[in-house]
Amino acid sequence: MHQRIIIRIPRIRDPHVTMMREKPVRWREKRADKCHRVSDFVGAAITDDHSVDLMLRNGDRLRAKLGSDCPALDFYSGFYMLPGEDGKICARRDSIRSRAGGSCEIENFRQMVAER
Cα separations (Å) of 71 from 21, 48, 76? Predict the structure, then answer.
């Protein structure tokens, strides 16, 4: 018996953009773990040409870096993630799949920290 779970990650408005129009938030990237539990993801925002920002339950932001041949613009209509048997999404192992049918491997994750 095989079981397959596909997780749809909804696009959300970036609260840092809508709440702080006068002064946009500057983000600094820090090192992040290679794997993350898919149950921690609650939404996503596309803020860069080759990455997708994932919002976590605890309020943190995680950037999934995609290959240079894989523009994030393809993911504006939404995307799916297929976790491994361990229930995690891992860089260099898993992909993000667009609703239009494309697929991009996650090269790495970066923790995003707002500079105040």
Answer: 26, 9, 10
Contact 56, 112 (CB under 8 A): no
DSSP 15: H
List the alpha helices (DSSP H) in 5-111. 15-19
Q: Which residues contact 11 (CB under 8 A, 6 or more apart)?
A: 43, 44, 45, 46, 76, 78
* Contact residues for 50 (Cβ-Cβ < 8 A; gap 6+): 65, 66, 67, 68, 70, 71, 72
pLDDT in tens, 57-109: 999 999 999 887 887 666 667 788 888 899 999 999 999 887 777 788 999 99
Global pTM value: 0.76
